[in-house]
C-alpha cells in the first residue's frame, strides 16, 4: 500500500544527530523537507558530511563551535537560501549527548523554521528596495523638517538680538514690535510641531470603524471652521451626504483639511465657493470637495499629497504642507484612493473613494514611514 507522506512536510521541526567532527549520524526527514530535499521522505539519512545538508552548513558549524565550551545552546539562528530561491530563517537548539567513557561525542540539534519570515528571493529583493525607498523618503522628510524649523528659529534669534540691543541702548520704542514678532513666529513653530504630531499619530493610530452619517461629521467640521468662514465670507454648499463605515476622528480630519484648503487657496479678495458632495458607486463612496480657487498645474497632482510639500509661498498662504499628506494617510488606512483635478485659476476638485464597509477589507499595512 502506498504511504501518504504529505504530513511530513507539515512538521515544523526536526532533529539532526552528528558527531563533533560534523559527520552526520541521523537526519529527521522533516528537516530534509525543511531545506527542500524530498526524494526520500521516509529514510533517516546517514553518511559523511552529506551535500544534502549544505544549506545548514553554517548553522551546524556555529552549533559545533559553541558546544566546545557548553553542553547546551539555544536559539542559534541562520538565514538560508534554497535551490528554488526561497529564503528561510532557521533556528536550532542543541545539546551534547553524554556517551559512555571513551566514545566520541554526539550532538543532537532540534531545527525549526520561522514560518512568518519565509519569503522568496524576489520578495526579499522587493522588500530591500522598499526599505531603500523608505529610507530615502525619511531622509527627505528630515531635511524638510529641519529646513522648516531652522528658518523661524533664525528669525527669532535675529529679533532677540535686536531686542537685546534696543534694551541696552534704552530705546524701548520698537520693543513691542520685536516681542510681538517673536510670539507670532513661536506660535507658528508650535503649530508646525502640532501638525507633525498629527501626521505621526495618524500613522500609529488604530482605527475604530463604525457606521457614521457624514452629514453630521461635516456639520461639526463646519462649526470648527466658522472663524475662517466668517473671515473670508466663504460659501460652503453641502449636498446630502451618505452613511459610511469609518473612523470618526479620521474622517473628521479628512473633511477638515479638504474644506479648509478649499477656503484658503483663493485669489486675494475672492469669496471662496466650496461644494461638498458624495455619491455611491458600487461598494465605494465617492466624496468630492470642489472649489473655485487658484488651482494648480496637473504635474503637481501627486506631489501635493506628499508630506511637507508646498506649491505656494508661505508668506501668502499659511500652512505647513501636511494637511493633504494627512488626508492621503487617512484614505490609505481606509483602503481607499484620493486624487485631484485642477487647473490654474480654475479651481480644484479632490475626489476620495472609500469602501462603504471596512469589514470587507483587510487590516491596513504599515504606513510609508513613521517618524
From TrEMBL:
Catalytic activity annotation: ATP + protein L-histidine = ADP + protein N-phospho-L-histidine
Assigned EC number: 2.7.13.3
Example of a GO MF term: phosphorelay response regulator activity
Keywords: Kinase, Phosphoprotein, Transferase
Enzyme class: transferase
GO biological process, one term: osmosensory signaling via phosphorelay pathway
Cited InterPro entries: BphY/WalK/GraS-like, HATPase_C_sf, HATPase_dom, His_kinase_dom, HisK_dim/P_dom, HisK_dim/P_sf, Sig_transdc_His_kin-like_C
Cited Gene3D superfamilies: 1.10.287.130, Histidine kinase-like ATPase, C-terminal domain
SMART domains in the record: HATPase_c (SM00387)
Domain Histidine kinase: 144-358
Protein name per Swiss-Prot or TrEMBL: histidine kinase
Protein source organism: Candidatus Auribacter fodinae
